[in-house]
TrEMBL record:
Taxonomic superkingdom: Bacteria
PANTHER family: DUF218 DOMAIN-CONTAINING PROTEIN, INNER MEMBRANE PROTEIN, PROBABLE PERMEASE
Transmembrane segments: none
Family matches, as InterPro entries: Cell_Envelope_Assoc, Cro/C1-type_HTH, DUF218, Lambda_DNA-bd_dom_sf, Rossmann-like_a/b/a_fold, TPR-like_helical_dom_sf
Pfam families cross-referenced by the UniProt entry: DUF218, HTH_3
Record domain HTH cro/C1-type: where: 7-61
UniProt cross-references to CDD domains, sorted A to Z: HTH_XRE, YdcF-like
Sample GO molecular function, one term: DNA binding
Protein name: HTH cro/C1-type domain-containing protein
GO cellular component: plasma membrane
PROSITE patterns given in the database record: HTH_CROC1
Source species of the chain: Longimycelium tulufanense
């Protein structure tokens, strides 16, 4: 491989010798020499800090390491041409096989380079039928690479890549490929937290004759997966069991093993640990592969079961930590966020059992019924504004009792969504015991653990309400000399709308994007550990959305009649601990 001249130039421009650069990264100088010679690649966990030192984004760092797809004409990496000047489709197909190998090994940067270099230099309008088919396949594989890294929505995301591929295969009238991409888009919807919508799409595709028998069986399994994540395990288990039988008839060993893994989690959700353990033992005895992604998923599922039994709880935490380290090492940020949520839920459960918890147990008068839960889920959906994510000048992560907000901010930073983040917040009644050092400080510590460089973090430790979160964070950015024309507000899932309405009032000049971890209502309840508290918060936030515009704290928001009615029913039922008192 040729010397990485761009990387060398960037290092020298940033004012580093090889020795000083190595010291800043806490690696040997000989390691930097190997990187720059092109013989080795920096590990994924080093790349965010490396990019920060060089003053470049993660995408720009990837270009320095592997070459820019848009600037390779005339270089060794320029696309091979036939004598006629057309694309060398054989080489293109070979590269796509290499992308598949990268996917299996989670070698994301190289895989994205291989896929992107063809896409960047091809005009789909000038391609013949074969070339357009390869173009569509390249988009699908690029979507896989982004999906496995948890880059789900936005202009450069799995959703965007699959959407473009869908257009290509529709143009080619390749109905099998169209249905396959529709299945992939349903997976993105599930990973984004829209579980019932995903289950509906999977259910239609499970009977779609355009798909192969294996893909139809997988769609049926995924119906159960989405329902199980939503807490509907009694409905999920029959769907998964039926899919399992189909995998047996199709002799699909890998899918058969994965189905056992998912059935184990569904039976755990039903409270049947004996059946869950039986299914998990089969999955462990017949693993469905040994790639980092497969190991992370298998260990995470196993840890979930181990944590459910007091006798194996310590082993569960150990397994979960091993899974988290592997996920972070290989850039599997979606899986890492899920693991962190599971760990937080388990730690909070231990806290409730062993010491005084910050969470108040539901009283007899406030038992959550199915009717309450339906109303809460309606308000939950309303609170999410559904912004398409795009890069912003800066981010503000609003402090609260949920460290998942800090974890999601770290994930978005590593995706290149913003160069700096302000963690803002003093304490509230529910967070004071958990974060005696303050919300902003606790969030900063979590982000540092997840690899966000200290230079990219600002803290604002004084805000005690959402308006102060915005105004004081704006002041922090201004004092740091950061002229923000766009800002990403990172909040708990149900706080998106109120944060948006408040920021639009307090900082009208800035373009606002709201973001939160893609969790369903049931998944979020599991991370917090107290459904009564969650519903009280949902109700309290909706009251503020209704009342604050009247006193100039926020801009008005339309509230559908059904949402208003659900709010009134929940207030009447006693979910009122977070309501304004005057």
């Amino acid at each position: 491989m040729a010397r990485r001249a761009g990387l060398i130039h960037a290092r020298k421009t940033a004012g580093y010798t090889q020795e000083k650069f190595a010291a800043a990264l806490e690696v040997a100088a000989s390691t930097v020499v190997r990187w720059e010679s092109g013989n080795h690649e920096p590990q994924p966990h080093l790349r965010p800090k490396m990019a920060k030192l060089l003053g470049v984004t993660l995408d720009e760092l990837i270009e320095l390491l592997y070459g820019s797809p848009a600037s390779t004409a005339g270089s060794r990496d320029s696309l091979p041409l036939l004598a006629t000047g057309s694309m060398d489709y054989e080489t293109w197909e070979e590269d796509l096989d290499r992308v598949l190998m990268c996917l299996s090994r989670q070698a994301f940067p190289l895989g994205m380079k291989l896929a992107n270099r063809w896409l960047a230099q091809c005009d789909p309008q000038s391609l013949d039928h074969h070339g357009l088919y390869l173009y569509g396949r390249s988009l699908v594989l690029l979507g896989h690479l982004r999906s496995d890294q948890g880059i789900l929505r936005g202009p450069r995301s799995a959703q965007a890549d699959y959407g473009r591929a869908l257009q290509v295969f529709t143009q080619l009238q390749n109905q099998r490929r169209v249905a396959q991409v529709q299945l992939l888009l349903a997976v993105v919807i599930e990973m984004s937290g829209h579980l019932y919508d995903a289950a509906r799409r999977y259910r239609m595709l499970a009977d779609d004759p355009r798909l192969s028998p294996r893909d139809r069986a997988r769609a049926q399994l995924w119906v159960g997966t989405a329902l199980s994540k939503a807490g509907a395990n009694d409905e999920a288990v029959p769907m998964m069991t039926s899919a399992l039988g189909k995998f047996v008839r199709l002799d699909e060993a890998e899918d058969w093993s994965l189905a056992h893994q998912k059935l184990a989690l569904a039976h755990r959700g039903l409270g049947d640990l004996t059946r869950a353990t039986q299914y998990m033992d089969v999955a462990l005895d017949h693993p469905c592969g040994d790639s980092p992604m497969q190991q992370v998923r298998r260990d995470t599922a196993h840890a979930h079961l181990l944590l459910s039994d007091p006798a194996t709880r310590d082993e569960g935490f150990t397994t979960l930590e091993r899974s988290l380290q592997l996920a972070e090492q290989h850039g599997l940020m979606h899986q890492a966020a899920s693991i962190i949520s599971i760990r937080q839920s388990a730690e909070q459960e231990d806290q409730r059992r062993g010491t005084r918890s910050i969470f108040v147990a539901p009283s007899v008068d406030n038992v959550v019924t199915d009717a309450h839960r339906r109303d809460a889920e309606l308000i939950w959906s309303y609170h999410q504004v559904g912004h398409e994510l795009r890069p912003c000048s800066a981010a503000i992560a609003l402090g609260c009792y949920d460290l998942g907000v800090a974890a999601h901010a770290a994930r978005l930073y590593h995706e290149g969504m913003f160069p700096v983040v302000v963690f803002t917040g003093a304490n509230s009644v529910v967070s004071a015991n958990r974060f005696p050092q303050g919300e902003a400080s606790a969030f900063k510590e979590r982000a540092l653990e997840l690899g966000v460089p200290e230079a990219a973090i600002f803290t604002e430790p004084s805000a005690t309400n959402t308006g102060q979160n915005i105004e004081l964070s704006r002041k922090v950015l201004q004092e740091a000399g950061i002229a923000a024309d766009s800002v990403m507000l990172i909040t708990m899932r149900y706080m998106e709308r109120r944060a948006y309405a408040t920021c639009a009032k307090r900082w009208p000049e800035v373009s606002i994007i709201c973001a939160s971890a893609p969790l369903s209502y049931q998944e979020y309840v599991a991370t917090i550990g107290n459904e009564k508290l969650v519903i009280d918060d949902l109700v309290g936030d909706l009251q503020r959305i209704l009342e604050y515009p009247k006193i100039g704290y926020a801009i008005p928001q339309d509230v559908p009649v059904g949402v208003q009615a659900a709010y009134e029913r929940l207030v009447h039922a006693g979910f009122d601990s977070r309501l304004l008192t005057s």
